[in-house]
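Everyone, carefully examine this protein record:
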Amino acid sequence: MKTDTTFLLVEDDEVDVMAMKRAFTRQKLANELWVATDGLEALNILQGKHGTYPRPESVIVLLDLNMPRMNGHEFLAAVRDDPSLNRLVVFVLTSSDHQTDIAQAYDQHVAGYIVKTDVGTGGLYRALELLEHYWRVVELPHS
């Protein structure tokens, strides 16, 4: 099993974090799941400036949009402006289904936009299956 890809969940809601951890366990994903509570902490992780996590070599970001300090849109803008991170694969996983949020995210070259309410009961597991198939098939850029 290809386990060298790290998933970085950028999410401030502890209930959603626990749900994602349960989904990883249920799906038997051996990949590491790191958690940042906002975009600023995620940037520090990705730039190797975080005390807990080393800089990941191969990473897929699962990004919420509505967070304190640095929200998802601000995070995406910072990532796309950073030459060492601008090829980062980011999937938005958020409660917002506003067309402006969706368009703004795709303008920042996200790989996909998943609305939390659309994943519903059992849907989170299907979303993870999609992500698992994605990273198994594609070649990801290394940091």
Observations:
- The mean pLDDT is 86.
- The longest strand covers residues 89-94.
